[in-house]
Amino acid sequence: MSQVEVWFVGVECRQRQEGEDEIYGTVNLVSADGSQKSSIAFPRGQQTWDFGPDNKRIGTLQELLYRGEPQELAIVASVIEHDSGNVDGYKAAAAGVVTTVATSAVAAVSAGAAALAAPLIALLSNELVDAATKFLGAADDIYGPKSLVLTPASMEGANQRRKTLHRPDDPKTLDWTDAIVQTGTDDGGDLGEYAIYLDVRLTPAAPQPQPRPRHAGSSSGAVSVVSRIPNSMELWWIGRDGSVEDGFWYEGSNWQRFQLAPMGSASSTGAVSAVSRIPNSMELWWIGADGAVEAAYWYEGGSWQRYQLAPAGSASPSGSVSVVSRIPNSMELWWIGADGAVEAAYWYEGGSWQRYQLAPAGSASPSGAISVVSRIPNSMELWWISPDGAVEAAYWYEGGSWQRYQLAPAGSASPTGAVSVVSRIPNSMELWWIGADGAVEAAYWYEGGSWQRYQLAPAGSASPTGAISVVSRIPNSMELWWISPDGAVEAAYWYEAGSWQRYQLAPAGSASPSGSVSVVSRIPNSMELWWTSPAGAVEAAYWYEGGSWQRYELAPPGSASSQ
Questions:
Q1: Bridge-partner residues for 342, per DSSP?
Q2: Are 397 and 380 in contact (CB under 8 A)?
Q3: How far is it between the farthest Cα atoms of the chain?
Q4: Low-confidence spans in the chain with pLDDT less than 50
Q5: DSSP character for 387?
Q6: H helix intervals, 52-135
């Protein structure tokens, strides 16, 4: 089974005692073998939460209680309605209680006792009550302590029981798998009820190598990925015979594969582009071997359906489609024509696809690609490489028409590369591209200023026929990956107030120099990557906060084209 994480995600006021309750408390965990313990005092950064009136019924947070192998866990929560007690003293005492109980558990297991959570519940509860008598005021009302035992079996079923909390009197929501409900009465007999919410999350172990498939990735192409909901990922790549291959993963299970489109459906030098404009749908596009723009879509409850967006000869077979969904009921696409024009299509719910030309023949390198971002819902920004290596750009703001400019002059970029972009906060954009000399070049824009440029990695750092992939998993960080000329997977990261740092994720020979890395951050504390190897394998790596990068092979060597 995968590793498991247990998160404390929120508190709900189901019934208040007074007009406004001042609430604080702790959630305490000890693993059955005593090896792990935690005590989370809430709220963070203040003594109490005010609960009761409208918009003050739900308190949300994200606090990690446990990460590790599945085992029995004893969890005890206490909620206190504050009047005059020593809040900080009680919170500190609770942490001491957890340490004491964990030490007792380790000693018991060492002496031969079974690692069971149930005996720890009573010990935790009693010790917390003792702590309360020392630090609570006469008018403070304690709810509980109440407890919960999580077993490996209950952890396995977490995804099936996950729910979303909604209330008509509070716009906040939270996702949860388990709750500890506590009631209490004050001196006047007024009843209050509060719920502590936990979310049990299965984090994937490295998937086992799959049986040798008939179709794996073209090493001259790339893997495309989307995470339409936090507990799933879906991948697509072009097979060695021009098929479109699909791999999908749902939390708690292994990777599964199928073929979306048969041999000959796609250009083996192209790539698949995907978007999930709403959580229950996915839409794909790719370039056919004859230069048609082909498409497929899936809506939950149905099967994949296919259509042709643009006929044969519409697109460069060595290019790809770029897509953005700036608002949930629309999609916008761009691709490079066989003549180097920048072609476009758009769809709005209730209508059909419409097409236009953004830039005329000769504007873009036929072997390049277009990058797009929608940093705010009423705008779109595009970049592409021209045949002479200039970095060209276009932007659109609602109510206006497309405008164009040149970001970097001729010779600035490899004509066989592409621009990568991220908007980590709404008023900024950051770009990277590979120079003709293999340098990693960059530019950034902050609202109110002009574009500024810098060089992230010197000449010879990147393969001129590759591309850069980027993700901003949290607003104050950015992470980049690219393929070096010797096939290493290189990386760089930036955290606010720091400078760029670099490292090597995979050594020389790991990746096809004509490929690229694809990345997704399905939840803020994780990143997942894929690339194709020179031997045509589909390689992967993943990172979860607090751990190191782990690697696995999704499709083995010899399965894919090495052209």
A1: 336, 359
A2: no
A3: 82
A4: 1, 115, 138-139, 205-221, 561-563
A5: T
A6: 87-110, 118-135
At 163-213, the pLDDT tens digits run 989 999 988 888 899 999 988 776 667 788 999 999 998 755 444 433 333
Are the C-beta atoms of residues 532 and 221 closer than 8 Å to each other? Answer: yes
Residue 202 is predicted with a pLDDT of 74
What pLDDT is recorded for position 25? 82
3-state secondary structure labels for all residues of 109-133: HHCCCCCCCHHHHHHHHHHHHHHHH
CA distance 536 to 41: 51
Q: How far apart are CA 318 and CA 155, in angstroms?
A: 46
Residue 428 pairs with which residues in a beta bridge?
446
Question: What's the CA gap between 346 and 325, in Å, rounded?
Answer: 10
Token pair for 379: 């705008």
Query: Which of these, 117, 79, 121, lies nearest to 97 by C-alpha position?
Result: 121
* Those residues with Cβ within 8 angstroms of residue 399's Cβ, 6 or more apart along the chain or in another chain: none
Q: For residues 289 and 240, what is the distance between their CA atoms, to the nearest angstrom?
A: 12
- pLDDT value of residue 39: 80
- Every domain of the chain and the residues it spans: 3-203
> What pLDDT, on the 0 to 100 scale, is given for residue 118?
60
The C-alpha atoms of residue 105 and residue 114 are separated, in whole angstroms, by 10
> Rg of the chain over CA atoms, in angstroms?
27
């995907």: which residue's tokens?
274
Residue 161 parent element (H or E) = helix 158-161
pTM listed for this prediction: 0.62
| φ, ψ for residue 405, nearest 5 deg | -155, 170
Alpha-carbon 15 to chain mean position = 35
Cis peptide before 43 (omega within 30 of 0): yes
pLDDT at 22: 84
